[in-house]
Write a structure and sequence with these properties.
- The two termini are 50 Å apart.
- This protein is mostly beta strands.
- It has seven helices and 32 strands.
- Strand 16 (210-216) and strand 17 (222-229) form a beta hairpin.
- Helices cover 12% and strands 40% of the residues.
């Protein structure tokens, strides 16, 4: 009897549940978009005005010391070097600062010298090489490449300096915290330029694939000539294009050759204290017929060892016969010292005052962002009183198609920037960036083959505000997207103030008279009870 009773109870419960579901389906129809359609509720939408204004960016993080997650692991995704001039946006002079890795294998001579002959060291050449990011187009008579990450086609002025600023991973004021370096950080220089040609005219080129090294004995006579080609791997014979910056021989001697056998080369810490790093400084070339330059994006931490930046030192040891100045043996040697450790960018941006009109400039690096204000004043309280069920909320920003769109970013990013109880700035991610990352948006949209707009879906964020789940409604900021803008996990609300993107775009603001239907707007789709 117990088994029969239990089966009957289960069947009765199941029947009751099905009747409830059927009854509910008569009132509601789910059409797969979170919008409810029925005879008791109406689905509507409304357009709300927003305020959008220019906000300059003073600096961004440029050290990557806190970027421990993949794919960065302590390095920025890209480092910029060069100059970019654009009349619509802020001018950029981008420089690179880097420590240099000690080579523990470096020794003045590797020659087995059983007779203990005296020798003299002759530096043949020294140079800084930084591989471009390039695509091999063909390799018939010689390799033909295209450079992937260069903007502009005019030379800029380049100099290399030794710095006296000690680069530390730990905050000197609080060693329990990671240090930080901003894009407007000052670095103290030591002495004169390290490059062989001062105020070097530099223009990226795919033809920089080999170096001729003349090997000379101590008496100045030509001993040999080496043709140096760098490739993507030890097994490849295809030369790869690199930025080559000849350095002074005196620099190579003072910093490297003269220190191979002393305590400065005993450890990386010793070397960092002795030689604190270099500044590769780019400035606009003042005598160009027209203003301009070129800006190069470098990967300073490639998984392919040969595609990392190095300082190369080539030298020749001349051994003399016993008690004579006659040459006995000539030995060629060379060592490479990788740039690494702490690598920073420095951006010098031209100050620009944007006019108060119907548009807003958004520029990467330390350029400019847009301040976006939604649901301000009494608007939020008025909407809360309506007790709407929010189905969708989206912010759309239209591009000013009459402005320069050459560098339009493929994506923008929206985040929160408010103040805490102590009036300190707090920046964080918008909820939808974590809860609905696939639908958050911000991607460039085209219309009739023209770059048209960017749209963000912020449904959860607006729903929380209108339902009263939160009253925290700070200003929003719109910026050029950077790979570090992505949340690491669903619970990650941290916004990381990095930007190494040169991209820039002009959007239309909230001015209804000037911009009409293309003004910035917040569209809310909602359901209300009849």
């Amino acid at each position: 009897m117990r088994k029969i009773f239990r089966k009957g109870s289960v069947l009765l419960a199941l029947f009751s549940f099905l009747m409830i579901v059927i009854s509910c389906e008569k009132d509601f129809t789910d059409i797969g978009t979170s919008i409810i359609s029925n005879t008791k509720f109406n689905t509507k939408d409304t357009i709300l005005e927003v305020l959008v204004s220019n906000v300059p960016v003073e600096s961004v993080r440029a050290d990557a010391l806190e970027l421990g997650f993949q794919p960065f692991s302590g390095f920025q995704g890209q480092y910029l070097l060069g100059v970019h001039i654009n009349d619509d946006y802020e001018d950029v002079e981008a420089s690179i600062i880097s420590q240099v890795a000690v080579n523990s294998e470096a020794t003045l001579t590797t020659y087995t010298n059983p007779d203990n002959l005296l020798f003299a060291t002759q530096i043949d050449t020294a140079f800084l090489r930084i591989p471009y990011q390039a695509t091999l187009l063909s390799n018939t008579d010689k390799p033909l490449y295209s450079l992937d990450s260069v903007v502009g086609d005019l030379p800029f002025t380049l100099n290399v300096y030794q710095i006296n600023t000690f680069l530390s991973r730990l905050n000197p004021d609080d060693p329990s915290k990671i240090n930080s370096y901003t894009s407007d950080q000052s670095y103290e220089k030591i002495g004169s330029e390290l490059n062989e040609i001062v105020d070097m005219d530099f223009l990226p080129s795919t033809k920089d694939t080999l170096i001729i090294v003349k090997r000379k004995a101590s008496d100045g006579s030509l001993f040999d000539t080496d043709t140096i080609r760098y490739s993507t791997s030890p097994t490849s014979e295809i030369a790869y294009p690199m930025a080559i910056i000849p350095l002074k021989k005196s620099f190579a001697k003072d910093v490297f050759i003269d220190n191979f056998n002393n305590s400065n080369f005993d450890s990386q810490a010793n070397f960092n204290d002795y030689f604190r790093g270099i500044l590769i400084e780019a400035k606009e070339k003042t005598n160009n017929p027209t203003r301009g330059g070129s800006l190069i994006s470098f990967d300073m931490s490639s998984p392919t060892q040969n595609l990392n930046p190095f300082i190369d030192v080539f030298y020749t040891n001349t051994y003399f016969k016993e008690n004579s100045s006659e040459i006995d043996t000539v030995i060629k040697q060379n060592y490479s010292f990788q740039l690494g450790g702490i690598v920073n960018n420095k951006f010098k941006m031209s100050d620009r005052t944007y006019p108060s009109n119907n548009e807003v400039k958004i520029q990467g690096l330390a350029g400019s962002e847009a301040k976006v204000e939604i649901l301000k004043g009494t608007q939020l309280d008025d909407l809360r009183a309506k007790n709407w069920l929010i189905n969708d909320a989206s912010l759309t920003f239209y591009i000013n198609q009459s402005a320069d769109t050459t560098l339009a970013p493929n994506r923008l990013h929206l985040y929160k920037r408010g103040l805490n109880a102590s009036s300190n700035v707090v920046i964080s991610q918008i909820k939808d960036k974590n809860t609905e990352p696939s639908f958050f948006g911000g991607f460039l949209q085209n219309d009739n083959n023209k770059k048209d707009s960017y749209t963000f879906r912020i449904t959860d964020y607006v729903s929380d505000l209108l339902s009263g789940n939160t009253s925290y409604n700070p200003d929003l900021r719109l910026k050029v997207y950077n790979p570090t803008d992505g949340a690491v996990s669903v619970s990650d609300t941290i916004f990381r103030p990095y930007n190494w993107s040169l991209k820039a775009i002009t959007i239309l603001n909230h001015d209804k008279n000037a911009n009409g239907v293309r003004r910035a707007r917040l569209k809310i789709s909602y359901t209300e009870k009849n």
